[in-house]
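Entry for the shared binder. Reason: the reviewer on the internal report wants the predicted structure included alongside the sequence.
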Amino acid sequence: MQNAVTEAPAAAASAPIVIPSTPAASAAALPVLVALSFSHMLNDMMQSLIPSLYPLLKDEFDLTFTDIGLIALAFQMTASMLQPLVGFVTDRRAMPYSLPIGMGFTLAGLLLLSTAHSFSVVVVSAMLVGVGSAVFHPESSRVARMASGGRYGFAQSLFQVGGNTGGAIGPLLAVLVVLPRGQWAIAWFSLAALLAMVVLGAVSRWYAANAKAARARAAAAKSAPVLPRGRVAFAIAILLALMFSKSVYGASLGSYYTFYLMDRFAMPVSDAQILLFIYLAANAVGTLLGGPIADRLGTRAVMWVSILGVLPFTLLLPYANLPFTIVLTIVIGLVMSSAFSAIVVYAQELMPGQVGLVAGIFFGFAFGLGGLGAAGMGRLADATSIEFVYEISAYLPLIGLLIALLPRIDHRGVQPAVKRAR
């Protein structure tokens, strides 16, 4: 037994790092996960109205692409700056009923946007919706992990696919509901905010009833750090770089894909919105598949495929004809979207007991980078063209090469490692 102990450091250099497993209180609480996914769908459906309405707002207020980028920046930077703060605070003090309260900010933002008569009011409306997002994402991600029953990738994917689905539905509803009737029709979506508040009220009651046991498990996990702080910080920096690649390229499609189709292929706005819906639907499918695959094959494997593996398709996109453009964007959406759940779960394993902070950092970083990317690409598109934006952003997946520097993590628990040592 002593020999096994003395040989352990040498073996650790090449073996995957073993994550201490925390016993699940029960099997996955599927009703809670479904309720969170449904609420995420409603939340992101409402949020996706803002970029979906860019063509309408551009004409209504005579905006430039730079102005559109500033609207995106106001929304996404508000969300990104507040999310880590919300996660940090709620890691230390449970706030179960913050979920429906946060949704109230989204409700206020939508109502204000439906009556906005100036560019500045549109920006304030976007910021209010951003505050709602900042509260919703870290707290609901925490509850999803609580309800996972140990299937963290599955829970994160099921939660995240609701958001992707809502993001895909939003542009379609914008075409069917808002564009034919005008800006005032945005107010109809306040009903979705009210429904989400009711569902999240029920989730909050479950959260309050299970918060004490979850805190105890989090404290036990936090007392046994996986890696030295320096290595954790280095790994987190790499994960943020991967998120940079994914989020900025995603912003190029999410914010400007309709304009790209309209400019390059002379497509009417309604048809372009439908193709945006198809791309976002592919994102939703890829997200749903990514988590369960990560549970089976590991988060690093999913990151390799979803970040670096998408490079050939992004390089081809700027030179494709219309049918091939549609196919390529579907493939890009399917493959790249599977990375998010894997990145979040990997980071939560690196920082046990800090689920809210991790979720806040990565959801917030994704939003912030999306906003910065949208603003920067809008400025670049004004100076050059939308086509040039896609030619430059096509190289972002090369950042995926950094995955080779991440430590290999095995979260199957300590018991198998003990058996091997014997």
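Summary line for the report: Residues 1-15, 17-26, 412-422 have pLDDT under 50 and may be disordered.
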